């Protein structure tokens, strides 16, 4: 039987945390002499009141323990509840609730799609709030991916089980220690990134906001031109480094800090991810040099930034890569499916699933060539658990089916095929920018119909929670137990 009391308690604590976070943009607006501080302060009081009631109603002096069923429901309910209250300041600042919810969902899920225009003229409080949402969302995503999803047996996440024993029971006994380690590393990366950005020419405010949205691989900027506003090669290379760091498994950082210095470089997923980025970036660089006569240094930098930004699902832009020709358009469409590493802030399919799919394909061909041959499936110097191949294949099938369904739904709302297809792809993959004149790297989601924004909000939530896979892979006994 599912225990709702701890779920209500934890969600209440999360709402109280969001209420505290709303004070930060209020302080900035007070310092700037802007009246919007009242909106954030009022939203903070309301959110704290709701969260506090939930905490008081569900408080129990016994230790809070969540099983697999409770963890599954918690991830879904908490993401929805946090998004709903995080939208309140946007409503108070003039957005209708559809746009406010879309912006909030895009921030919390670190997608980076936006309905706001004229960012350069907006109050600093609302710009900071967008960045804070993505910073908090990035941390929550890592914790969920490392602690909860392996226990839920989702799409091969069993490979990254954080606790080998008694995995079907309690999720939280070891979670606090792991969460603190993750939070410490995440905070350290944020601070270092902000300092580097400031040293390379950003204002302190821009440095903080962009650090929050870089390490979380989220992509909200304080300027309409995104990262291209700064016109700084040094800042672009720094962003490349921190986007990659945000896309690496945080578990390997923990191992490295505990003395295993080679953990990062020995990890098969990290090796595959970095190799993929290098090959694609160099290929695109060569294309720009040969067909667009772009200087080599500029080609390498802009190609590397754009490839890393899309693959890591960050969504920053320095140039409109759709203007580089049809080859570039096709390439970036495919890159929106890839994603970074598991246990990171990124969305998408994830590198390890593509690697496992490659292993399965190779095994199948070897079996066709030699039917009697016994092929042991190995990944990262370990034998693949028996249920991982099915989980990965099922995930890939459901992922593509989900993109297809959302494409059809959006097309039914009179969106052109390019807009519908790439909007669905980016939403499920939590990438941010799409392709085409409406939602491309230089576009905006503000002109989409209200119905399309709700559909995309739901797609962003599904993509971040990997809910569609959970629903299919769970046995009926899970819910009856």
Instruction: Write the H/E string, N to C.
Output: HHHHHHHHHHHHHHHHEEHHHHHH
- Number of helical regions: 22
Mean pLDDT: 85
Mind summarizing the main beta sheet? 2 strands, antiparallel
Q: Uncertain spans, ≥5 residues at pLDDT below 50? A: 162-173, 475-481
Q: Cα distance, first to last residue? A: 6 Å
Tell me, briefly, the overall form. Answer: globular
Q: What is the number of strand segments?
A: 2
Instruction: Going across the biggest sheet, name each strand in turn.
Output: 1-2
List the helices and strands and how they pair.
Layout: H1 4-21, H2 23-32, H3 37-58, H4 68-86, H5 88-92, H6 97-108, H7 124-148, H8 175-199, H9 204-215, H10 233-246, H11 250-257, H12 263-266, H13 268-292, H14 296-311, H15 326-335, H16 351-369, E1 378-379, E2 382-383, H17 388-411, H18 417-429, H19 436-439, H20 450-465, H21 467-473, H22 476-480
Antiparallel strand pairs: 1-2
